[in-house]
Design brief:
CATH topology: Leucine-rich Repeat Variant
Radius of gyration: 22 Å
Number of domains: 1
CATH architecture: Alpha Horseshoe
Shape: globular
Oligomer: single chain
Helix content: 55-70%
Number of helices: 8
Length: 176
């Protein structure tokens, strides 16, 4: 059991009071939240500052809107910076459309490991099943596996879309 000295108790009390002061005062001084339009965020994907582009990709995902699908898909296919492509992959998962799955399957064959990992994680979170893809596989190993997986994904499209309309139960892909 911990024993508090008089000095320790006083310091703890001061820390609690200061913490409450910071919390209460912080609410008054917090900057207003700015909501950017999808168009503005899409334009920032091409920013020369990688952090700005990464943040734009992340914010587009926070919108959770299919409106962000096109700019994020273009980013996945044409962006040169792997960190930004990985952010786009994570954001596509939040959009949750079948078209996003198709782009993510392409991302699972990206040259950058970080993008392959983000794309795989996104597909697993969207489909609800881990297909045992290994992002560290060499291109020769990934290619045939991804071709077969893409065919399976295409065959699941109808089931996914009808589930998206209901969302009354977890999606259960076929095990063929």
């Amino acid at each position: 059991m911990m024993q508090f000295t008089k000095r320790g108790g006083i310091l703890l009390g001061i820390a609690v009071v200061m913490g409450l002061f910071v919390i209460l005062r912080g609410e008054e001084e917090a900057p207003p939240v700015r909501y950017e339009s999808p168009e503005v965020l899409a334009g920032r994907l091409a920013d020369s500052d990688e952090t700005v582009a990464w943040q734009a990709a992340t914010d587009l995902g926070r919108l959770g809107s299919p409106v962000a699908l096109d700019p994020l898909s273009r980013c996945m296919r044409s962006e040169t910076r792997p960190r930004v492509r990985a952010a786009a992959a994570r954001s596509l998962a939040k959009i949750g459309t079948w078209d996003a799955v198709a782009v993510l399957v392409e991302g699972m064959n990206d040259e950058a490991l970080v993008v392959r990992q983000a794309s795989d994680t996104a597909v697993v979170s969207m489909i609800g099943r881990d297909w045992q893809f290994d992002p560290t596989w060499e291109a020769e190993e990934r290619g045939p596996w991804l071709e077969q997986f893409a065919e399976h994904v295409d065959s699941e499209r109808g089931g996914w879309e009808s589930w998206q309309k209901r969302k009354d139960t977890p999606y259960a892909p076929s095990t063929d």
